[in-house]
Design a protein that fits this description.
The protein has one domain. 68% of the residues lie in helices and 8% in strands. It contains four helices and four strands.
């Protein structure tokens, strides 16, 4: 299941970015979320993000093994955005965020949802252990 979720996330994100690009809806974000760190050269930022992704995976791998959907969304979204960074020097954003003039993409939502799922599951486990009297 994990591999399928990763591949599905990458494919959906790349296809939607391609289709949005045909309609000129895409902006290239050379930074990270909301354009932060865009002053760092693209190659260095890509390397930093790859190390960060591997570090997050390494530290949390035992927890994520029991949550393949959360892990698949996080890794798939991260890899898809890293593909953009490696090929284009930035991430293609096209989904407008409500109330502000910034954009995201499917990968950004997959990363956020995967992390949120893991945090909720971790909190539930902690709650059950601390209240098991």
């Amino acid at each position: 299941m994990l591999t399928m979720v990763i591949l599905f996330t990458i494919i959906i994100d790349q296809v939607t970015k391609f289709v949005a690009g045909l309609s000129n809806l895409v902006t290239l974000n050379s930074g990270i979320s909301f354009g932060w760190l865009s002053i760092i050269p693209a190659g260095l930022l890509t390397l930093i993000l790859m190390v960060l992704l591997l570090s997050v995976w390494w530290v949390t791998r035992s927890d994520w093994a029991t949550h393949p959907l959360a892990m698949g969304l996080f890794i798939g979204g991260s890899v898809s955005n890293l593909i953009d960074r490696a090929v284009l020097g930035g991430v293609r954003d096209w989904l407008p965020l409500p109330m502000i003039t910034l954009h995201n993409n499917v990968a950004d939502y997959a990363i956020g949802i995967g992390l949120l799922m893991l945090i909720i599951r971790h909190w539930q486990t902690y709650w059950k252990q601390s209240h098991a009297d």
